[in-house]
Specification:
The chain is of the alpha+beta class. The protein is built from twelve helices and four strands. The protein has two domains: 123 residues, Arc Repressor Mutant, subunit A, CATH 1.10.10; 105 residues, no CATH class.
């Protein structure tokens, strides 16, 4: 089995994304030629995660999920669901116009017109940005209704500010520990509450504190993801720190207390470590 990739995509993003996009491009071109799986202005291909693991045997299931999430977050791929049964969990993927720009063979006039023909008048007009210049203009229906209601209350309404997740670009600007972007995306997906700049700053501060006890930031984040914690805190790593210091003999601990006495919820060990 041989795998190839688009060099420009690899230069702008990385080889992993380029390999995944190349596979989607192969099936997209075949489906366009056969006029198959064209929905809502996109040409789709589908696969289960297990099948993708067979196609890319050098990636684990977890790595594949990260790569797909990065492709979506970077606007290169869309995910959809056109399964005929509700219990079918097969995922559908489509290249966006951003990806089409790297493959001129996908931008032939017949293919662009085919995709445009599946867009409803009120649908997404992403195709109008294609390089070939095939544009479809939709004239909005004019609003003929007049507003007869009068504003009886001039008091301004208090609008609660909506907290939004940081983007990958914003994370990279506030990443003093050099963490891979895919770890941030996995944390973002797992965490129920938004990751704001304030949350990220507190997160980075805690990683710096944990690093002082011999645990690297990337190891700390991987443990957080494996345990499905919403963030990292020094007390969560009590066992790791106690073990590291006992093994290296850098910091003596209470000789009357066994290592097995420590647990992740016990913070009394901090007082027993002689700095």
């Amino acid at each position: 089995m041989e795998h190839a990739f688009n060099v420009e995509i690899a230069k702008i993003y990385d080889v992993d994304l380029a390999l995944f996009i190349q596979n989607l491009k192969h099936w997209t071109l075949r489906n366009l030629a056969n006029k198959k799986h064209i929905h809502d202005g996109y040409c789709w291909t589908f696969n289960t995660l297990e099948a993708l693991c067979d196609i890319f045997p050098y990636w684990t299931s977890r790595q594949l999920q990260r790569i797909i999430a990065r492709a979506v977050d970077n606007g290169l791929v869309k995910k959809g669901n056109y399964n005929t049964t509700t219990y079918d969990r097969t995922c559908w993927y489509a290249l966006t116009s951003k990806s089409y720009e790297f493959f001129p063979e996908l931008n032939e006039e017949k293919y662009v017109k085919l995709l445009i023909s599946t867009i409803s008048p009120n649908g997404e007009m992403d195709l109008t940005k294609r390089l070939n210049g095939f544009h479809q203009t939709v004239t909005p229906i004019p609003d003929t209704k007049t507003d007869t209601k009068t504003d009886t209350k001039n008091k301004p309404k208090c609008v609660k500010e909506k907290l939004e997740n940081l983007s990958l670009e914003e994370f990279e600007k506030n990443n003093p520990h050099g963490l891979p972007g895919d770890l941030f995306l996995e944390w973002k997906k797992m965490r129920k509450k938004p990751i704001t700049l304030r949350v990220l700053n507190a997160f980075n501060k805690e990683l710096s504190l944990i690093a002082q006890y011999g645990i690297t930031p990337i190891d700390a984040v991987n443990k957080m993801l494996d345990r499905q914690w919403s963030t990292v805190e020094l007390k969560f790593f009590a066992n790791d720190i106690a073990f590291n210091k006992t093994k290296s003999n850098i910091i003596p601990i209470n000789q009357n207390k066994k290592q097995t006495d420590y647990n992740d919820d016990d913070t009394s060990w901090i007082e027993e470590i002689s700095l």
